[in-house]
Amino acid sequence: MNAEGIPNQASYPPLHDLDMFRNGEYRKRLTGAQATAEHAFLRQSFPHTHRAAWEAVWIPQPALLGDETDMQEIVAGIRKIQANAKELVAHDTHATPVPARG
Amino acid sequence: MSQLALLGGKKSKSKPFPLWPQFDDTERRGLNDVLESRVWWRTPGTKTLEFEEAFARFHGARHGLAVTNGTAALEVAMAAIGLQPGDEVIVPNFTFVATASAVLFANALPVLVDVRPDTYCLDPQLAEAAVTPHTKAIIAVHMGGHPADLDALKDLAAGKGILLIEDCAHAHASEWRGKRVGTFGVGGTFSFQSSKLMTAGEGGMVISNDDGFERQARSVHDCGRLPGEWFYSHFSYGSNYRLSEWQGAILMAQLGRLDQQTQQRHQNARWLIANSARYQASLHKSLMNGALAMVNTHTSFTSTANSLPAFRPKVLLQR
C-alpha cells in the first residue's frame, strides 16, 4: 500500500502479548498478593483483539481530509493489490503465514 | 510488466494527500502572542486556560484540564479517582499501551478484556464477567473514534458501583446518542499527539462534570497544589503535568477547525463505506445505534477470507 501511495500503519498489538506482560516486568508495579497472583488474562484467548491487531490495516486520518479522487484512488489501490496478490506474495519473501495467536 | 507499484507498475495515487498537521495564520498569531507576552507557561497565562475551557464546552463538560499528553491525561485520571495498590481496572486488550500503563503507574492491575468484533471497542459482557471485588473502574476506549457501547458500560458501572472513564484519545467530536463523548462516566481523557484529530505535536486533556474529580485532577497535575492557595503549598502527592502556553495557543486554533474537518472525514468515510463492497475490501464499518463518529482517527480495512497476507502489516510479516 505504501508503494501505491496509500499511507497506512500497523495496528496496535494485543496488550497481553507485549513484552512487559510476557516477561513479568509489569508485576514490579504491583504489591502484595496481586504481584504474585495468577492473572487470567495471560492465558485467555482474545479472538477479536487478535483479528483487529493482525488482520487490519489502518489508514491515518489525514487521508480522510482529501477529496473524492483521493478516496477513489485508495480503493483502486486496494483493488489492484487484491487482484495481484499472488504475484505480491510470490515476490515477498517475508510473506510467511502468520501463526495463530490470541 | 507488473501492475503493482512495488514491482515497477504505476502508483495508484496520482496526487499527494492533504498535509498534516494543518495550520494557518491563526496558529501563527497565537504563537506570536505568546512569544511577545513573555508568559510562556500556563500558571500566569491565559491561552491554555482559554483552550481548556473552550474544549470542555465543545464536549459538553463543565471542567477541562489541559495536560502534557494523552498518557499523562490517563495517569492524572487514575490518580484523581484515588486508584490504590490492590485495585483492578478493566481495560480493553486492543488499545495503545497507555490505557494499561496508566493503571500500572498507580500500582494497580489492568485486567485485559477482549473487544467487540464490529467496533474494536470493549465488549460489555466480557467486561462484566471480569468484575471482581477489587475492580475500581472500567476504561472504555473509543477506538478509531467509534464510541464504545456507552449505554451498556454506563449501566454496568452503575450496577457494580464502579467508575467509568472514557479514553477518548481518538474521539474528538465523536458522539454517542447525540452527545459528545467524554462525560458519560466520571471523566474522559484526550490526546493531542501529532497523529490525532487536532494536535500541538503533544498535549492532552481531562474533561469532567464531577467537581470532586476535577479538583483532584487539577491538584495532581500541578504538584499537589490547590487553586487559590499559596504557591508553595502542596496538599497531596502530585507532579507537573502542565501544558505550556505555546500548546494552548496552537490547540485553540486547531479546535476552531475541528467541526469542518470532522464533516469532511465523515463524508469521505461514508463514500468509502458505500464503495468498499464493490472493491472487495471489507471496510470496518459498523455503526452501532447512536454512534455518529465512526471513522475519526483512522479508517481500518479488515482483511477478508479472500485477502492474502499482503494486506497484513509488514511489521507482522517480519515478526
What does this 3D model show about the protein?
The complex is a heterodimer of chains A (102) and B (319). Chain A has 102 residues and is mostly helical. Chain A has one domain. Chain A has five helices and one strand. Chain A has helices at 19-22, 32-36, 47-54, 68-83, 85-91; one strand at 56-60. The relative contact order of chain A is 0.19. Chain B has 319 residues and is of the alpha/beta class. Chain B folds into two domains: 25-253, Type I PLP-dependent aspartate aminotransferase-like (Major domain) (Aspartate Aminotransferase, domain 2), CATH 3.40.640.10; 259-317, no CATH class. Helix content of chain B is 34%, strand content 15%. Chain B has nine helices and eleven strands. Chain B has a seven-stranded mixed sheet with strand order 1-9-8-5-4-2-3, with helices on both faces. A two-stranded antiparallel ribbon of chain B has the order 6-7. Chain B has a two-stranded antiparallel sheet with strand order 10-11. In chain B, helix 1 (25-37) runs antiparallel to helix 8 (245-276) and helix 3 crosses helix 4 (98-105). Residues 279-319 of chain B have low confidence and may be disordered. At the A-B interface, helix 3, strand 1, helix 4 and helix 5 of A face helix 4, strand 3, helix 8, strand 11 and helix 9 of B.
Brief synopsis:
Helix content of chain A is 39%, strand content 5%. With 102 residues, chain A is mainly alpha-helical.
Helix amount of chain B: 25-40%
The arrangement of helices and strands of chain B along the chain is HHEHEHEHEHEEEEEHHEEH
Percent strand of chain A? under 5%
Give the largest chain-chain interface (CB within 8 Å): A-B, 71 and 82 residues
Give the overall silhouette of chain A.
elongated
Task: Note the main sheet of chain A.
Answer: none
